[in-house]
Design brief:
Strand content: 15-25%
Low-confidence stretches: 2-9, 457-469
Number of domains: 3
Radius of gyration: 23 Å
CATH topology of the largest domain: FAD/NAD(P)-binding domain
Shape: globular
CATH class of the largest domain: Alpha Beta
Helix content: 25-40%
CATH architecture of the largest domain: 3-Layer(bba) Sandwich
Largest sheet: 7 strands, mixed
Number of helices: 15
Number of strands: 19
Strand order of the largest sheet: 7-6-15-16-17-14-18
Distance between the termini: 25 Å
CATH superfamily of the largest domain: FAD/NAD(P)-binding domain
């Protein structure tokens, strides 16, 4: 939401059953589940608004996510949440066009026949590329692939030339120096997810909610408030305290929030930094810190343009050009109508990268100026004067690096410190991170915490607004 939630009043916070750190979809969904079990919850968020990576900003008289979002037909958790909140009528289906930018040309890849016209590959390799997804679906379980890298698996499915032209540039653009280490399980779930959102004709159907994630977050906040959940924004968690029995609560600059159950929904490295081991802490704190520090992450820079005209007819353009500074160009108003944004044509340009990379460290103006000649190379008619406004958003923890045998590295939800839990995108596996899985895993964490804490049995009134998923 755009408006400020409940702020600290200067009085010592009252004890609650569970403190949740982070008001993204994971934390809010966990709170929804716990409140339905009759547990008292307080959600603490460092930003002034809820939503995490789905938080929004103003475009004209409406609001839009800082980082692009859409849902697939397979995203049942998110679609069910909308139904439970009474806003299913806002969810709209859109047939979209996808493509790839290669060797200074844009090629459409929205339907099976488009593959046959993909000139960068010889005809026989176009057939191999088309069959690749079908071969991938023969894999019945992700564990069959957990020991392999995406590179090894994709070459075995489609051949080296298909890999070099199509997949290697995408993996390097997405994961940089980690490209050859990415696990085959990550790519397998990507191929399954995209395939599940295609019509019988092969065209892709995606879903977006009228009013954006802001509409969903508003409805979710209202439901949580009605269930008695406290949401405190503008307060950053500084430390999670514990004693020999387990967790005791969360410290912020404004005060200490006592609770014997704490759920952290931040990236594992951030969560590890909250465990400041002292003489009075639980003895499992050091090992928990070590486990949470084991997952590598990439950040993201997202340049958002508000243009007075469209760049193209393509919604999602993958970039297979190592000299282009972004891995994807997502023209949002080819999914949602520009009339909803006062006629502006909204374009996201996204890049995953380490936070010490030059692009990440540039000022907003430098990012924009650096990007302009590249956009003009991709779209020769584009002019700087088309841009009415631009925005640069950064996220230091945007993509966990999924490697072979990732299930051995992935931290569990429950830690060795009694009452301390972790839930976030690093544990969305074998699927890739997304709001749908944030809802799923948040609710799972809520049920686990409730079970461990011996939550009171649900009454019919408690369960209203929450469903088992």
């Amino acid at each position: 939401m755009n408006t400020q939630m409940e702020q600290g009043s200067g009085h010592a916070p009252a004890p609650v059953d569970v403190v949740i750190i982070g008001a993204g979809f994971t934390g809010l969904s966990a709170a929804l589940e716990l409140a339905a079990q009759g547990m008292r919850c307080r959600v603490i968020e460092s930003e002034d608004s809820i939503g995490g990576l789905a938080a929004s900003f103003a475009v004209g008289n409406t609001r839009l996510e800082r980082f692009y979002h859409h849902w697939f037909a397979s995203d049942g958790e998110m679609l069910r949440l909308c139904e439970q909140l009474g806003i299913s009528h806002l969810v709209e289906a859109h047939e979209t066009r996808t493509g790839v930018y290669f060797a200074n040309s844009v090629y459409r890849l929205s339907a099976p026949l488009d593959l046959l016209r993909f000139a960068p590959l010889p005809f026989v390799d176009r057939i191999r590329l088309g069959l690749l997804a079908l071969r991938a679906r023969r894999v019945r379980h992700w564990r069959e692939l957990e020991a392999r890298t995406a590179r090894e698996w994709l070459i075995s499915l489609g051949g080296r030339r298909v890999y070099e032209v199509v997949w290697r540039p995408l993996l390097e653009g997405k994961f940089g120096k980690y490209a050859d280490q990415v696990g085959a399980t990550w790519m397998w779930t990507k191929l399954h997810l995209r395939g599940g959102s295609r019509t019988k004709s092969g065209r892709e159907t995606l879903y977006y909610i009228k009013g954006g994630c802001e509409a969903l977050l508003t409805a979710l906040h209202e439901r949580l408030t009605s269930l008695g959940v406290e949401i405190v924004t503008g307060q950053a968690a500084e430390a999670v305290h514990s004693d020999e029995r387990g967790v005791t609560g969360v410290a912020t600059a404004e005060g200490f929030h006592p609770a014997r159950q704490v759920l952290v929904t931040a990236a594992p490295q951030i969560a590890a930094g909250l465990l400041r081991h002292g003489t009075a802490d639980h003895p499992a704190v050091p090992e928990t810190r070590r486990r949470w520090d084991a997952v590598d992450y990439l950040g993201n820079v997202c340049l958002v343009l508000e243009n007075d005209r469209k760049l193209s007819d393509t919604y999602w353009l993958n970039v297979n050009d190592p000299d282009f500074p972004y891995v994807g160009v997502i023209e949002h108003t080819n999914l949602d109508r520009p009339e909803r944004y006062e006629g502006r044509h909204v374009v996201y340009l996204s890049k995953y990268l380490p936070t010490d990379a030059e692009l990440y460290r540039m000022s907003d103006e430098e990012v924009f100026d650096h990007s302009l000649p590249h956009i003009q190379r991709m779209f020769p008619d584009f002019r700087r004067e088309w841009v009415r406004r631009y925005h640069v958003w950064r996220a230091p923890y945007a993509q966990p690096v999924i490697t072979p045998h990732y299930s051995r590295v992935m931290p569990p939800v429950d830690s060795a410190v009694p009452g301390l839990y972790l839930a976030g995108m690093a544990q969305v596996f074998p699927e890739d991170r997304g709001t749908n899985y944030a809802v799923r895993d948040g609710r799972r964490a809520g049920r686990l915490i409730g079970d461990r804490a011996g939550a009171p049995a649900r009454s019919s009134s408690d369960a209203a607004g929450s469903a088992d998923v």
